[in-house]
Amino acid sequence: MKEVLKDLDKAFENRIRLGIMSALVVNDYIDYTSLKELLDVTDGNLASHLKSLEKCGYVSYEKAFVDRKPNTNYTATEKGKEAFIKHIKAIEQLLQ
């Protein structure tokens, strides 16, 4: 049991962060607005959770302008994908 618990990552304990990583692991990238709509969260809530994942090195972003409007795309880093998959496998082992 202790072995399984050590593989749980505190960065993913919040449901919003879990949702962000779930969306980013199955997509190459997602823009901020789409992520906000998908998770049904406020700007401030999404921004704070994205910042937290960025600090862990799990998410990266790229800013650009599309039709003169700012557009930010988020991507799960390799480190983030590996940590997320490890976290999900630990949950699966707990449930068995």
From TrEMBL:
User: Per its UniProt entry, which superkingdom is the organism in?
Assistant: Bacteria
Cross-referenced InterPro entries: ArsR-like_HTH, WH-like_DNA-bd_sf, WH_DNA-bd_dom, WH_DNA-bd_sf
Residue ranges of domain Winged helix DNA-binding in the record:
16-95
Quote the Pfam families the UniProt record gives.
HTH_34
Give TM regions.
none
Q: Name one GO biological process term.
A: regulation of DNA-templated transcription
What name does UniProt use for this protein?
A: Transcriptional regulator
Organism of derivation: Pedobacter aquae
